[in-house]
Amino acid sequence: MKIVVTSILVDDQAKALAFYHHVLGFEPKDDIPLGKHRWLTLTSPNDPNGVELLLEPDVHAAARTYKAALKQDGIPATSFGVRDIQAEYTRLCAAGVHFTQPPTAMGPVTVAVFDDTCGNLIQIAQRH
């Protein structure tokens, strides 16, 4: 068994696609209309056949409550691995990304947390 799709709840799929593609650098994979919403996935440019990230609409009331509670408590919705966290932090800051936590060493990893503009906090992490 392996992970093939993982989702992140977003408040606006078009805005999320712009952020995750143009700012973070993920590559669009599937964009399938499903009525009012879309099956909208992206992959890492380094692994186009790898795990897909689904930008899932947060239309269910429980989803919005869950997202808001995580964000209020400062808990990231997900974590992405990076090779050089300082370089990613610098690149994303230059692109206007708002970080709630700068790179911080935590044992075997250094992590940073930013706001994805779609209702989530996202962590990036570099293993040492």
Automatic annotation (TrEMBL):
PANTHER family: GLYOXALASE/BLEOMYCIN RESISTANCE PROTEIN/DIOXYGENASE, GLYOXALASE_BLEOMYCIN RESISTANCE PROTEIN_DIOXYGENASE
Top-rank taxon: Bacteria
InterPro entries tied to this protein: Glyas_Bleomycin-R_OHBP_Dase, Glyas_Fos-R_dOase_dom, VOC_core
Species this protein is from: Pseudomonas xantholysinigenes
Domain VOC residues, every copy: 1-127
Protein name, entry field: VOC family protein
SUPFAM superfamilies in the record: Glyoxalase/Bleomycin resistance protein/Dihydroxybiphenyl dioxygenase
